[in-house]
Design a protein that fits this description.
Length: 275
C-alpha cells in the first residue's frame, strides 16, 4: 500500500532514477530552515558545508528533525520499503553569483554499498532554479555503467574532481525546486549542477537513506539512524542523538566517519580514480 507516492511516480523513479518535485515543507517552514542555516553560518564564520559533511545532521536536533520528517519517510517507504535508515547528510550550497559547480558524477563512485541502493532526498531550503544552479539528471543512467575520470578544478564542489565521461548532456532534465521541495535520486544516476548566476544563494541539504539489507563494504563500524521499521540484519550501528546544537559527541562521530570515508576515497583516486 502506497503512503505518499502514486504508482506512476514510483515507476518514474524506477525508470529515470530520480523523481521531483515532492512537497515537504510550506514556504514559511522552509524560510525558517533557511533562517536557522543563516544563523549557523554566521556563528561559524564560514560555510557550514566546509565543516559538516557525510553526517551533517548529527550535531543538530533541528536537522535530525528534518531527516526524520514523517512525510519524507512516507515517500521513502514507497521507494525503499518500510525499514528505513539514514546513514548521512551533507550541505551543498552556492553563494550568490558563485562560479562553483558540481561535475557530472554518480554518488556510487564514492560509495561502497552492496547492493547499490542508496536513495538521496535533496531538499531546497530556498528556490533552486536553472539560474541558481539546480540539480540536473540524465534519465535512466542508473541502469548503465558510468566511467569516471579525475579532472581537478578549484570551482568543483565535487572536491575530488570526478567526472563521468561521454555524458549525453542534451538529455539532461533540470530539477527546479521551490523552497521546501525535494528531489529524490538513486545513487547510480548521473547528475550535476551548474554555477549560481542568481543574485541569491542556493541552499541544498542532501540526505541519504538505505534499507537495512544494504551493507557498507568499505569500512567497519558503519552507523546510521533507524527512523522507521526494524533492522533485521545488524550491519549498522546506531548514531548518537544530539542533546543540543554542536553536541561534541555527535561532532566526534561525524568527524570519525568522514575521515574514514575520505581516506578510502583518496586511496581510490591515487589508484587511478576510474570506475
Amino acid at each position: 500500500m502506497v503512503k505518499a507516492l502514486d504508482e506512476r511516480q514510483g515507476q518514474q523513479f524506477k525508470d529515470d532514477g530520480f523523481l521531483f518535485p515532492y512537497s515537504l515543507y510550506t514556504p514559511d517552514e522552509a524560510a525558517d530552515l533557511w533562517k536557522k542555516f543563516n544563523a549557523l553560518e554566521e556563528e561559524l564564520g564560514e560555510e557550514p558545508q566546509n565543516r559538516f559533511r557525510i553526517k551533517a545532521q548529527l550535531p543538530f536536533p533541528w536537522l535530525c528533525d528534518v531527516v526524520s520528517n514523517e512525510r519524507l519517510l512516507d515517500a521513502l517507504e514507497d521507494l525503499i520499503g518500510p525499514d528505513i535508515l539514514c546513514w548521512g547528510a551533507s550541505f551543498f550550497t552556492k553563494k550568490a553569483n558563485d562560479p562553483r559547480f558540481i561535475s557530472w558524477h554518480t554518488d556510487s563512485f564514492v560509495y561502497g554499498f552492496e547492493p547499490a541502493e542508496t536513495v538521496t532526498a535533496w531538499l531546497g531550503f530556498n528556490d533552486s532554479t536553472i539560474e541558481s544552479g539546480c540539480l540536473r539528471y540524465i534519465p535512466g543512467s542508473h541502469k548503465q555503467e558510468s566511467i569516471h575520470e579525475i579532472r581537478p578544478d578549484p570551482n568543483n564542489l565535487a572536491g575530488l574532481g570526478q567526472n563521468v565521461i561521454d555524458v549525453p548532456e542534451e538529455n539532461a532534465v533540470y530539477a527546479e525546486l521551490k523552497a521546501g521541495e525535494v528531489v529524490f535520486h538513486h545513487e547510480s544516476v548521473v547528475h550535476s549542477s551548474g554555477p549560481n548566476r542568481a543574485n541569491h544563494p542556493r541552499i541544498g541539504f542532501s540526505i541519504h537513506y538505505v534499507a537495512p539489507h544494504v551493507k557498507e563494504t568499505r569500512f567497519d563500524g558503519a552507523t546510521a539512524m533507524l527512523l522507521r521499521g526494524e533492522d533485521k540484519y545488524g550491519y549498522w550501528g546506531a548514531d548518537p542523538l544530539p542533546r543540543y546544537d554542536l553536541d561534541p559527541v555527535c561532532i566526534n562521530s561525524m568527524t570519525e566517519t568522514r575521515e574514514k570515508f575520505m581516506s578510502i576515497t583518496a586511496r581510490k583516486i591515487e589508484a587511478g580514480g576510474r570506475s
